[in-house]
Design goal:
Two copies of one chain form a homodimer. Chain A is an alpha/beta fold and 321 residues long. The first copy, chain A, has eleven helices and 13 strands. In chain A, the strands form three sheets. A seven-stranded mixed β-sheet of chain A has the order 2-8-7-6-5-3-4, with helices on both faces. Chain A has a four-stranded antiparallel β-sheet with strand order 9-10-13-12, with helices on one face. In chain A, helix 3 runs parallel beside helix 8. The longest helix of chain A is centred in the last third of the chain and has 22 residues.
């Protein structure tokens, strides 16, 4: 398995404690999740019906501001797993550094997958992958810059897993254009990664292909019920976006005392150059705060935002020691 | 989308009523489900960890009586979706009549997929598919007969989606043999199809391949928590198997009055030759009882077992009219 955040087993194994003692900041998952209401038993017992699935997809269309074809999948990751089969294997170029699953999944399926350093270098690729805003460095690309790529790549995949709190960057309103495929994650912004829900938006042909590969019941009844309710709750989105924006600046301010250089981030996580991330991670881990390191970038430490006030207090106390 | 049970939308559309008015007997999903205990919030919020996934898979191994490699997927259907990629496309032969997704998924991935009338005709296939006991006719194959096939096919896929209540038919204790892959469904016997959980058991190499295709987080935190608890509950399995056995004979007895010829079945569903299944379906549907027809077999009607006593009463009343 590739290096990922959320690998809390590793934290427990190396630094002890019980699962419930840990504050897991190793991911970009919102730690003040959308509240899960009690589910009716039907969501557990019955196969999700076509009309329920359609009503979830309609809610997602509304939330993301698009009329394009859409398919609900078990997380953005599930779409990544299917991506290599949307086109015959060819040249894939991935704007780097970014989420490591793309190169891995594409290579395993016979693609020539390599990193690209800038948007320009994506030109000519059969498949170009851009994560916007980017994980882990928060790099942002304006929609018109990305749209300009459409004419010079086969398929442009824009992974918008972290776009919810910066919706002005989203290309969702342009979804449906031929050669453009957009992935949205439900679990990160809504803080419900265990639900396994995400969406792909694109041309009718591409979404039909993805839906056929995913099969008739790719997501759970719970994902449909929870996702639908959350996606239609505009008040929560607005309140949460404002809070994440505030809190991400609060984290940067808190970190200043450490002399770690801010590299970038999104409202869901921040990236710092610590000089020695393994040492920084180990130090936070003694206080049972877990963070994300990157073996290929030994200085980088990524931190999600603490949730409740007591988590901020614990982080501040450890940083002040 | 192919013809499936559980298509309750269609029932509502053609015969009216509200969702909660209907008794859905169009599937083989147990209508007295395993009780879902309240979930801790972590199962919703966090990415499923490796150790949680492993503990679910260990519970499944114990329940199914195997030490072989195993992977948890979003239903047996999710394994079927990945099946065409386990081997290079070749000749697939499916013991027919059976679950229609096999031929469809294999053909879409470039396989030469065709029906076979008996076990002998599967010989020479690169991939042989047997559903045991079979859906929809309940046909049973003794384990030694299936094992004998291993030497004359490339890969033998045994779909044991309906085997839980007739465990003496299961090949799970033989899983791990090269060329043998077994699918298990969680949702049918446990009555929790909306959870989306199933397992593939097989050789290390095949299970590694399936796991790589499925990606790091194919099932939800809820599926892990609910599945683990249910699979370790032997008392419930024993009690439920006995009840399903009783109730399947009760349904056959109830149907006798109709003059429908019993074709076969499993403890989770029964198949009858009604002469005119569309008419029989329409008649039951006026009482808001939904059933499964098969366009290629116009006489066949498949009925799952009613759950609570009041469901039996409603079915009996409609049949007595």
């Amino acid at each position: 398995m590739l290096e990922h955040g959320g690998n809390i087993d590793l934290a427990l194994q190396h630094f002890g404690g019980h699962l419930e003692d840990w504050i897991d900041l190793s991911t970009g998952i919102n730690r003040q999740p959308y509240p899960v209401a009690p589910l009716s038993s039907r969501h557990w017992t019955a196969l999700p019906s076509r009309s329920e699935t359609i009503s979830l997809q309609e809610a997602a269309r509304q939330a993301y501001g698009t009329r394009a074809s859409i398919v609900a999948l078990a997380g953005a990751q599930a779409a990544i797993q299917l991506l290599p089969r949307l086109r015959p294997p060819g040249r894939a170029r991935i704007l780097a550094p970014s989420y490591n699953e793309y190169a891995s999944v594409l290579r395993a399926a016979g693609w020539d997958a390599a990193d690209a350093a800038d948007l320009k270098s994506l030109a000519g690729a059969d498949l170009a992958v851009v994560v916007n805003p980017n994980n882990p460095d928060g790099r942002r690309h304006e929609p018109d810059k990305l749209l300009a790529l459409l004419s010079c790549v086969g398929l442009l995949l824009v992974d918008e897993s972290f776009v919810d709190a910066v919706p002005e960057l989203s290309l969702a309103p342009e979804a449906g254009r031929s050669g453009l495929l957009i992935l949205r994650s439900f679990g990160k912004f809504y803080g419900l990664a265990g639900v396994r829900l995400g969406f792909a938006l694109g041309s009718d042909a591409d979404i039909d292909l993805l839906a056929a590969q995913a099969g008739p019941w790719p997501i759970s009844g719970a994902a449909i019920a929870i996702g639908r309710r959350a996606l239609l709750d505009r008040d929560w989105v607005i309140k949460t976006s404002a809070r994440l924006d505030r809190d991400s600046r609060r984290l940067d301010a808190l970190i200043q005392s450490q002399g770690w250089a801010p590299v970038g981030g999104t409202p869901l996580f921040r990236l710092y150059d610590t000089g020695d991330a393994r040492a920084a991670q180990a130090r936070l881990a003694t206080a049972h705060i877990w963070s994300r390191t990157f073996s290929e970038r030994p200085g980088w430490l990524r931190l999600g935002l603490p949730g409740e006030e007591k988590e901020w207090t614990r982080l501040a106390a450890e940083l002040a020691r």
